[in-house]
């Protein structure tokens, strides 16, 4: 479902067929999760296919590699150009793009010596989360920032996301709300979170979250609409029963929440400022003005 016999990927200097690509079994990326990656979306616009916030995503990829001591020499411009080339070769417009940086064969716990860049893409028209999600506070915490570089998007980090997300699904919820080690709300398994109260949006301050590019875009939109936003630490109790809430991320876009721990958000989504932000975001990714 991610690729077929004709799908083209970029791998370490060449465009090759996805079906012909392989990976080395003797590497730290596979064994220890020592890889960095991005999740990017491209959209069909009246000016052609446009990658949303390519610069921000590729700057974060380079920063993630740097924080992990993985050598990675591509420039943001090279990465962006290669991605447009990849989309063109596959004939994709609305797509999800997954750049992945893995390390050369080495089973020790030393720093990366050499890295390989893969660029994968598949067609995608929707966010990965439905609107009106029922979410639960997870018993899994986000990784302690003193044990990990939480602002880096690293493969191994997502084992925690899988555990939290699957636990929520096993318990009958759509997604997990994950707390930091002090019990403050951090984020979801793969998206940032906001809640709305009396026309003000609240989102967890940086520290135990992946500072999302969509989160930043939401704050830009709020600034343009004069919607007050507070970056602060708060407990799930403060979020439960608020007017509205949403998850946001490149893949999630803006996904409305129905309830937290079975306590519904109280306002009709259509009447919230969050809905205004959602609409503005969906226009912005297609380069339409607010
Ligand atoms: N938090 C986590 C853990 C994520 O995986 C993502 C998705 N990359 C986000 C937040 C949202 O980040 P962005 O808006 O940059 O996609």
Report on this structure.
The protein is α+β, with helices and mostly antiparallel strands and 290 residues long. Helix content is 26%, strand content 30%. The strands form two sheets. Strands 8, 9, 10, 11, 12, 13, 14, 15 and 16 form a nine-stranded mixed sheet that branches. Strands 1, 2, 3, 4, 5, 6 and 7 form a seven-stranded antiparallel sheet that branches. The longest helix is centred in the first third of the chain and has 15 residues, at 76-90. The protein is globular and about 50 Å long. 4'-deoxy-4'-aminopyridoxal-5'-phosphate (PMP) binds next to helix 5. It comes from Chryseobacterium pennipullorum.
Question: How would you describe this structure in keywords?
Answer:
single chain; 290 residues; D-amino Acid Aminotransferase, Chain A, domain 1; D-amino Acid Aminotransferase, Chain A, domain 2; 2 domains; 9-stranded mixed beta sheet; binds 4'-deoxy-4'-aminopyridoxal-5'-phosphate; EC 2.6.1.42
Offer a concise description of the structure.
The chain is α+β, with helices and mostly antiparallel strands and 290 residues long. It is built from seven helices and 16 strands.
CA radius of gyration? 19 Å
What structural class should be given to the helix and strand makeup? alpha+beta
- Number of DSSP strand runs: 16
Look at the structure and give the CATH class of the largest domain.
Alpha Beta
* Rough outline: globular
SSE run: EEHEEEHHEEEHEEEEHEHEEEH
Catalytic activity: L-leucine + 2-oxoglutarate = 4-methyl-2-oxopentanoate + L-glutamate; L-isoleucine + 2-oxoglutarate = (S)-3-methyl-2-oxopentanoate + L-glutamate; L-valine + 2-oxoglutarate = 3-methyl-2-oxobutanoate + L-glutamate
GO biological process, one term: L-valine biosynthetic process
Function: Acts on leucine, isoleucine and valine.
EC number: 2.6.1.42
């Amino acid at each position: 479902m991610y690729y077929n016999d004709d799908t083209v990927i970029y791998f370490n200097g060449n465009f090759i067929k996805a079906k012909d690509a392989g990976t080395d079994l003797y590497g730290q990326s596979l064994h220890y999760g020592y890889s960095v990656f991005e999740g990017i979306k491209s959209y069909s616009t009246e000016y052609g296919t446009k990658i949303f916030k390519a610069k921000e995503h590729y700057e974060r990829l380079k920063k993630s590699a740097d924080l992990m001591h993985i050598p990675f020499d591509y420039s943001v411009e090279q990465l962006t150009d290669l991605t447009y080339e990849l989309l063109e070769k596959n004939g994709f417009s609305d797509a999800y793009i997954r750049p992945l940086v893995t390390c050369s064969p080495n089973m020790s716990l030393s720093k990366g010596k050499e890295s390989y860049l893969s660029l994968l893409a598949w067609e995608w028209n929707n966010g990965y989360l439905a609107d009106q999600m029922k979410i639960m506070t997870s018993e899994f915490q986000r990784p302690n920032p003193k044990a990990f570089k939480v602002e880096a998007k690293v493969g191994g980090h997502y084992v925690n996301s899988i555990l939290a997300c699957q636990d929520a699904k096993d318990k009958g919820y759509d997604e997990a709300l994950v707390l930091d080690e002090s019990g403050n709300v951090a984020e979801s398994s793969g998206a940032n979170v906001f809640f709305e109260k009396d026309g003000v949006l609240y989102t967890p301050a940086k520290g135990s979250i992946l500072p999302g590019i969509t989160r930043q875009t939401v704050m830009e939109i709020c600034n343009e609409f004069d919607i007050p936003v507070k970056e602060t630490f708060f407990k799930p109790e403060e979020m439960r029963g608020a007017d509205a809430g949403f998850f946001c991320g490149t893949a999630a876009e803006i996904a409305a929440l129905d309830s937290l721990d079975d306590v519904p958000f109280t306002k009709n989504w259509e009447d919230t400022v969050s809905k205004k932000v959602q609409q503005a975001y969906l226009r912005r990714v297609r380069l339409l003005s607010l």
